Amino acid sequence: MSIAPAFHPIGTPGVAWGAAERGQWLARQSRQRSYREDVVDAIDRLRTRFDVEDYGRLVYGEEAYPLYAVRSRDWHDERPVVLVTGGVHGYETSGVHGALRFLDLYAADYADRVNLLVVPCVSPWAYERIHRWNPDAIDPNRSFVEDSPAGESAALMRLVAPLQGRVRVHVDLHETTDSDESEFRPALAARDGKPFEPGEIPDGFYLVGDTANPQSDFQRAIIEAVAKVTHIAPADARGEIIGSPVVAPGVINYPLKPLGLCASITGARYTTTTEVYPDSPRATPEQCNEAQATAVRAAIDYALAHH
């Protein structure tokens, strides 16, 4: 669906932001929900069943955010590793709560078959502000690169570095929202001093595979499972979803590594980025969370069946 963007109030059209404009942007951000109450407390309730690792700490001004990863308690090195990440974009709510839902309801089904490493909320500051960026106006999901400028991305890469070559599945949980078009893409254009080109928000769930390693059957299996929970996004009139060609129902591909995207960090054989559409009149928050958890389950099931 098309969303009419509002005029972005910060900066001069055609001129990239400097420190003053970034400061103006930061001053407009306000805390709207609690990372501790929504995420940390939920992780604490899982401690009786999983190992919880404090893998870093983000300090922004007077605020500090501990970063948590949840691991299989019965970890065996001979088992394949499954990485699940949520909240790389903090405003994408079902990514966070879908990861927590998977841990609470479904992870036990895989206890003796895989080693699970789940990071429910990569970007806690942005989770609280319901925003895409971190306080430096940096998008963590374009920052999974060497010497990353985003603390969120750098911390996650340090966490998974010892697992390079051992991760079989990585599912990165995201959303595509109406605010992408009305707020975040206009802000990106303003930040970079570029013209804003309106796009179209797809109505439904879709996946982003890796152009260099598309794994089409894997992606198809996830789509088929999620279709039982919520509707799949159709291609637009150009045969695209968010400007990329649809290569199978509900599937597009991106060059993950060159774009610095989270799903590129392990080199896993099976990688995908989920995209739930929470603003659809046809989807509830419960459906969105379940769609994310279902995608993780389908990804693991496929990888185990095709070892």
From TrEMBL:
Matches recorded under InterPro entries: AstE_AspA_cat, Peptidase_M14
Domain Peptidase M14: 31-307
Domain of life, source organism: Bacteria
Keyword tags: Carboxypeptidase, Hydrolase, Metal-binding, Protease, Zinc
GO molecular function terms attached to this record: hydrolase activity, acting on ester bonds; metallocarboxypeptidase activity; zinc ion binding
Cofactor entry: Zn(2+)
One GO BP annotation of this record: proteolysis
Classification via PROSITE patterns: PEPTIDASE_M14
Family: Belongs to the peptidase M14 family.
This protein's name: M14 family metallocarboxypeptidase
